């Protein structure tokens, strides 16, 4: 197993390096804050490793290019921030329905892309596996897992990063992770060699096959995909919990805010407060059963997310009336709208968790003082 | 002796197609499949198809193929080619696909000098939706959403995509063929061969083919070829617009076409056309 040893690295660089360690050969992207540095690292590093990084002329073209690269069987990725990913949604839908193993990075401006990531803005009956790291160390692991799961399920996997993960530095070891699980052969990939043989290949989202070859047709193709999504839901849920045994209050949070909540809950636990947390690592498939079990003996559930309230819908579906569910996060951003807002602060999160725990009114959201 | 119509190209899986009577697209299909085969590229070619009537060819052509979305084929082809530089990658798109929805993609792919070949089947109409105006519909052309004919003041002007691409430094070979008569079919096939050769030499190539769509033009099937040369053919001028980096003017192409028409007359008088 190769390893770089512990090295101080920006999150964007670490995720690019983790992708290369996972065998990523192709990346295409379009600059956008806070995704830009990920593109920069791929542009510098992939050619050095015998791969290709194209500075696409638009997000649409980046998504198209990665579609082509994936069709050849190569491990390939694209990314942006939520706004740029909005432009790519049509292609993401088709890539998913064509069962191509795409990896997508969303270096998001906060957590307002939860719906986009887990529901998608595209057309059709499709799902993306969504992995949400809480810090750079976990991002290195989940980036490699993303490439593995994409190949395993022939389905796109989205890594939900953010401004904090993209821009801060941590000491990490980029060691290639060997997943102890066989992957299906890419016997669907095109290389041109079968032309004229009657066995040439067709990569299509429509369930079509070449004349003379067995074709499922669109209806059976879509039903088979629905079965695949059910199988993913049954086997790929990843979640972290803490302090749930006798918790009166359960806090649910994901990503960087999930790490803050974990810290705050550990602190309050040490002070004797009966508070626990659930941190979904896969946003889809969502850990509904973990949430249900956590809510079973609890008196209240709080959701801390940096948006007006999106994951809270899934939490409510998990809780299913067992306890009241309250959003204790909110919209918080820096003056540019791109970065980390004042609410991502352990002291402020502690105040909000305690307010919920004691049935007191939530403190007002802190205002960003800087105006552009 | 077998007649042309009885000779199925080797890279075609069926002898049937689902196009309307009088459609020009199967003629273009034959042209590029034969060109690939005759150049010995059958085991290197990878197609990327757009969305239009010609999408049904995706199932019947015996080369590896990636089915792309409307407009996106040049970008998809870019990804394929960058991963498999020794393959011969070409797109097949209609005018709605390439010039409306995906104009930016073909322009950037050409400007990048991507070593792929983009093939445009240009009939000046959205055939698959039932005959609607595209960006290449000519002034005066009647479509379902220009019932009194395309009016420049109201609908704007057509884009001459071949002429536009020829101006880009990254484009090495740009040609506009047609399939409205036997001479044009033969000439277009030669354009396909030059385009694939250009790709093998590392350059971007583009072949536009004017194709008949009597259904979408709302005219009798038999009038397709004449209507085409009198309308689309008068605006989108046939010829090699750029060879070895040298761009030809519309006047030069006109002169060339007059000369070639005369040569065809002579050839027909001799009793045949050399393909």
Q: Which characteristics define this entry?
A:
heterodimer, A: 372 residues, alpha/beta, 2 domains, seven-stranded mixed β-sheet, 15 strands, 39% helix, B: 275 residues, Rossmann fold, eight-stranded mixed β-sheet, 10 strands
Task: Outline the structure in words.
The complex is a heterodimer of chains A (372) and B (275). Chain A has 372 residues and is α/β, with parallel strands linked by helices. Chain A folds into 2 domains: 6-173, 3-Layer(aba) Sandwich (Rossmann fold); 239-357, Rossmann fold (3-Layer(aba) Sandwich), CATH 3.40.50. Chain A is built from 12 helices and 15 strands. Chain A has helices at residues 11-21, 36-48, 59-71, 82-97, 114-118, 136-153, 163-167, 217-235, 255-270, 288-296, 311-319, 346-357, and strands spanning 6-10, 26-29, 52-55, 76-80, 103-108, 129-131, 157-162, 169-173, 202-203, 239-242, 249-252, 275-280, 282-284, 300-303, 325-327. In chain A, strands 3-2-4-5-7-6-13 form a 7-stranded mixed sheet, sandwiched between helices. Chain A has a 5-stranded mixed sheet with strand order 10-12-11-14-15, sandwiched between helices. A two-stranded antiparallel sheet of chain A has the order 1-8. Chain A starts with 5 loop residues before the first strand and ends in a 15-residue tail after the last helix. The mean pLDDT of chain A is 96. With 275 residues, chain B is of the alpha/beta class. Chain B has one domain: Rossmann fold (3-Layer(aba) Sandwich). Chain B has 12 helices and 10 strands. Chain B has helices spanning 25-38, 57-60, 73-83, 95-101, 103-111, 152-155, 161-166, 182-200, 214-217, 224-230, 232-235, 250-270, and strands spanning 45-49, 64-67, 88-94, 117-122, 125-126, 132-133, 171-178, 204-210, 239-243, 246-247. In chain B, the strands form 2 sheets. In chain B, strands 2-1-3-4-8-7-9-10 form an 8-stranded mixed sheet, sandwiched between helices. Chain B has a two-stranded antiparallel sheet with strand order 5-6. The longest helix of chain B has 21 residues, at 250-270. Strand 9 of chain A pairs parallel with strand 2 (64-67) of chain B.
